[in-house]
Amino acid sequence: MRAFVALLWARYPVVTLAFLTAVVATLFFAVRLVLFPPPFRDGGFAPGPIKGWMTPRMIVHSYPIAPERLAEVLGLDIRSGKPRTLEQIAFDQGLTVDEIVARIELALPPKPAGAP
Questions:
Q1: Using CB atoms within 10 A of its CB, is residue 85 exposed (0-12), middle (13-18) or buried (19+)?
Q2: In angstroms, rounded to a whole number, what is the distance separating the alpha carbons of residues 36 and 45?
Q3: Any idea of the CA torsion for 92, 98, 103, 108, to the nearest 10 degrees?
């Protein structure tokens, strides 16, 4: 085996080095995946707080709220036009981002006991 690697190194040093680098990187990330699993793997994923840079579509995908309910809360049709952030929506309605976020949080269903 060692002679074979030495032969490859002698004939194709760049390709051999690239291959060995790829093998080491693959092993590194495989070990990392086993030791530090992603948070969503065990159902422990919890979306962060609602921020002004988020769009209604992102909120619908991150939180348990129906698009129609969110559109009702925000007072707009989220399926038409260019996507806008909560900051833009708040500005257009003459509200602060905190007021828009508070409206959305009130519309969300309550978290079950023991949820993150």
A1: middle
A2: 14
A3: 130
pLDDT in tens, 34-46: 898 776 655 556 6
Express each pLDDT in 61-71 by its tens digit: 888 889 889 98
If we measure between CA atoms, which residue out of 112, 94, 116, 95 comes closest to residue 49? Answer: 116
Sign of the torsion formed by the C-alpha atoms of 105, 94, 57 and 42? negative
pTM for the full predicted model: 0.59
Q: Looking at the chain, which runs of residues are DSSP E strands?
A: none
CA dist., res. 103 & res. 56, Å (int): 13
Q: What is the mean pLDDT of residues 73-90?
A: 82
Q: How far, in Å, CA of 108 to CA of 2, rounded?
A: 62
| More confident call, 47 vs 45 | 47
**CA geometry: angle 54, 59, 65, nearest 5 deg:** 160
Q: What tokens does 23 get?
A: 């093998």
